[in-house]
């Protein structure tokens, strides 16, 4: 579990005397890093002299030192501490990047620049401008994802969390209640949940309690009063309980790790509100956790707890025997502990704890509520593990490299002129942005401004950019947007096709015909039969094919592949057809025509999976009858090289009631929902899927499907449909 080594109070007490803080920290660093920190400290003090933060009026240098002290306790390396001290330099000095790189290094410059980007986004995308709680919740969740996606180094987010923590500690000195409430609301909506999902617990608790203090002051005071002890006294109580537990568990021979904390005010209020409980009905104001190696030790530890202190009736839950929906497993009990105070105890194995903290069905999502996103949660799990390992890594250069992340590069986040954040697929253009807002806006889109500059509609957008759509009063989208690859999102592609489909059918067919003829002209050496070409792509006639191209349903790439398939095959070293023995006609019981012999046992070869109307040939096996191969089967060529006399002519008989398994292969960029989309295509074409094999590597997926067909032509339309799926680069029969 990620935690701050010391209490926040100790950290900020040190930072209250900046010079003393610098001396204490420098003494623990290598000389080169100590010198770097000292230079940054001196530069910040000089640049910030007499300056205050515009949002709160806090002295800028004091704020920087206090935030840097928090970052230092997070063990994020000296570069991050220096970047925190220098966070406001871009506002104080022209051409700051060259100066900072020269004096403090490229890494510090990148961190400061990233923090500036985060600050800009949070200022533009104000959550408090939205009217309903639902809109605020959606905006906050999108912004949390955006902040993680737009940084190249995860320390940027942690530095921002440290700044916000210091701002919240200073907030009582701000006289304007509206300002206090706005900052506190943003903290609870955006920054505290972000700290929660990254596992930075001490910052999470501080942000929640301090934010709650200003958004619900009456409830805060009421709960604080009901907590009849001061926080430090509760911490001391937990410390004494932990010492007792460690002694008893050791005496019983149970190897365990014991930790605890007093429950903070905000979580008490949330639990009271969620479960509609009175304060007197809460038994987990003080809580400890016991982690053991083996499952039996969980119940041994439970017996020790119940032997030491009296259990509270009705407060025992066995989530090991009966796990929660997200597979969370643990024993929970509440007892009357020392001094007759209620105490909650959680007991689980290290493996159970690791699943709760880092598992894909993440416990943080369970706690926050809302819909889950398995891919996103898996990436968060990796970040949590990275931040957990940082305490144990001795390789400082390796740790610095590990902080760099591109986990969230499959999605970008951009802003509307009003500050609304939109999530789009990587590579999205202003067209995708327009359709994400409204289909009518997308249909009339004719241009765009990015950061105030007019750009082409084909321009890929970047994280954090502010985009404005330029529209025409009339007109609609162009099918060329699809064929030229200017559109990436499912929504935009669907809306463009829908619009084009509603237009004049003759115009659409003419557009498709022009696209087809243009592609055909690129292959002057090929003269395919147009009827056969249409059939190969799954259309009864060319007019239907033209219409599909005009609507954008059939891609130019799929047509090009079909045209190329009419190219004559290269000469083969061995032509099985030339050495097949001719004999009298006959057929087997399975509908395969075998020349020369009646009713022989035949089996379709698994290596090439022939199906009508493939040209086929038989190969006489030893003891398994005749195996039927496609004539171009490589395995057949290898088998017949030494025994060509075993080849025998074969053909298809009456197959009206038969189905045949064939293999198709799909190559695509790996993405969420890919397998579902392919399955939908097979389902719509009424093909039975009997086997799937997938392999993902380096963000690319290669999938092989075995489906049952009556004729090979059945698969042509399916392959064309699969080529239309986002990310698919190839779909073919194996």
From TrEMBL:
Q: Name one GO cellular component term.
A: plasma membrane
Task: Tell me the GO BP annotations in alphabetical order.
Answer: guanosine tetraphosphate metabolic process; nucleobase-containing small molecule interconversion; response to starvation
Q: Which residues form the TGS domain?
A: 410-471
One Pfam entry name? HD_4
**Which residue numbers delimit the ACT domain?**
663-734
> What top-level branch of life does the organism fall under?
Bacteria
InterPro entries in alphabetical order: ACT-like_dom_sf (IPR045865), ACT_dom (IPR002912), Beta-grasp_dom_sf (IPR012675), NT_sf (IPR043519), RelA/Spo_fam (IPR004811), RelA_SpoT (IPR007685), TGS (IPR004095), TGS-like (IPR012676)
List the GO molecular function terms: GTP diphosphokinase activity; guanosine-3',5'-bis(diphosphate) 3'-diphosphatase activity
Similarity section: Belongs to the relA/spoT family.
Function as written in the Swiss-Prot or TrEMBL entry: In eubacteria ppGpp (guanosine 3'-diphosphate 5'-diphosphate) is a mediator of the stringent response that coordinates a variety of cellular activities in response to changes in nutritional abundance.
Protein's UniProt name? GTP pyrophosphokinase
Q: Which organism is it from?
A: Aquitalea aquatica
């Amino acid at each position: 579990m990620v935690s701050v080594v010391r209490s926040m109070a100790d950290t900020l007490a040190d930072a209250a005397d900046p010079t003393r803080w610098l001396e204490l920290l420098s003494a623990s660093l290598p000389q080169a890093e100590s010198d770097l920190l000292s230079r940054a400290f001196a530069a910040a003090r000089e640049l910030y002299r007499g300056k205050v933060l515009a949002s709160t009026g806090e002295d800028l240098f004091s704020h920087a030192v206090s935030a840097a002290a928090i970052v230092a306790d997070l063990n994020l390396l000296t570069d991050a501490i220096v970047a925190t001290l220098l966070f406001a330099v871009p506002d104080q000095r022209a051409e700051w990047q060259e100066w900072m790189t020269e004096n403090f290094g490229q890494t510090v410059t990148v961190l400061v620049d990233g923090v500036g980007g985060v600050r800009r986004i949070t200022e533009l995308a104000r959550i408090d401008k939205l009217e309903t709680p639902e809109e605020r919740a959606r905006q906050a969740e999108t912004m949390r994802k955006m902040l993680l996606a737009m940084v190249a180094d995860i320390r940027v987010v942690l530095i921002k969390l440290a700044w916000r923590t210091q701002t919240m500690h200073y907030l009582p000195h701000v006289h304007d209640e509206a300002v206090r409430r706005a900052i506190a609301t943003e903290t609870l909506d955006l920054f505290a949940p972000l700290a929660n999902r990254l596992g930075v617990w001490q910052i999470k608790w501080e942000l929640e309690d301090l934010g709650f203090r200003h958004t619900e002051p009456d409830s805060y005071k009421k709960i604080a009063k009901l907590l009849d002890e001061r926080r430090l006294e509760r911490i001391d109580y937990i410390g004494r309980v932990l010492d007792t537990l460690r002694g008893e568990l050791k005496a019983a021979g149970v190897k365990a790790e014991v930790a605890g904390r007093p429950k903070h005010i905000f979580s008490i209020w949330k639990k009271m509100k969620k479960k509609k409980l009175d304060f007197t009905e809460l038994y987990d104001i003080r809580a400890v956790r016991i982690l053991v190696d083996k499952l039996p030790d969980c119940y041994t530890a439970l017996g020790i707890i119940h032997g030491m202190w009296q259990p509270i009736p009705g407060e025992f839950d066995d989530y090991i025997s009966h796990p929660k929906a997200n597979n969370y497993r643990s024993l929970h009990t509440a007892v009357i502990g020392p001094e007759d105070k209620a105490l909650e105890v959680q007991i689980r194995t290290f493996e159970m704890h690791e699943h709760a903290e880092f598992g894909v069905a993440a416990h943080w999502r369970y706690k926050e509520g809302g819909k889950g996103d398995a891919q996103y949660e898996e990436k968060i799990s990796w970040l949590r593990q990275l931040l957990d390992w940082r305490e144990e890594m001795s390789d400082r250069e390796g740790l610095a490299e590990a902080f760099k992340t591109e986990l969230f590069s499959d999605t970008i986040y951009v802003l509307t002129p009003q500050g609304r954040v939109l999530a789009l697929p990587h590579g999205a253009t202003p067209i995708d942005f327009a359709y994400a807002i409204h289909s009518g806006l997308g249909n009339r889109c004719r241009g765009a401004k990015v950061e105030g500059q007019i750009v082409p509609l084909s321009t890929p957008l970047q994280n954090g950019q502010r985009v404005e759509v330029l529209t025409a009063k009339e007109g609609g989208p162009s099918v060329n947007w699809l064929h030229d690859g200017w559109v990436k999102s499912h929504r935009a592609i669907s809306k463009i096709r829908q619009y084009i489909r509603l237009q004049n059918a003759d115009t659409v067919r003419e557009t498709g015909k022009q696209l087809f003829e243009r592609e055909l002209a690129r292959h002057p050496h090929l003269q395919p039969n147009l009827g056969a070409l249409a059939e190969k792509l799954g259309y009864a006639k060319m007019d239907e094919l033209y219409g599909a191209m005009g609507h954008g349903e059939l891609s130019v790439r799929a047509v090009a592949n079909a045209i190329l398939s009419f190219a004559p095959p290269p000469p083969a070293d061995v032509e099985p057809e030339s050495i097949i023995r001719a004999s009298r006609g006959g057929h087997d019981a399975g509908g395969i025509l075998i020349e020369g012999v009646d009713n022989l046992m035949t089996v379709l070869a698994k290596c090439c999976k022939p199906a009508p109307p493939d040209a086929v040939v038989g190969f006489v096996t030893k003891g398994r009858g005749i195996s039927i191969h496609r004539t171009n089967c490589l395995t057949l060529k290898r088998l017949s090289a030494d025994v060509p006399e075993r080849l025998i002519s074969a053909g298809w008989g009456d197959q009206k009631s038969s189905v045949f398994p064939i293999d198709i292969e799909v190559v695509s960029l790996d993405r969420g929902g890919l397998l579902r989309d392919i399955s939908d295509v097979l389902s719509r074409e009424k093909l039975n899927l009997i086997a799937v094999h997938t392999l993902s590597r380096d963000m690319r997926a290669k999938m092989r499907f075995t489906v049952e067909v009556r004729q090979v032509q059945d698969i042509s339309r399916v392959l064309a449909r699969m080529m239309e799926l986002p990310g698919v680069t190839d779909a073919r029969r194996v």
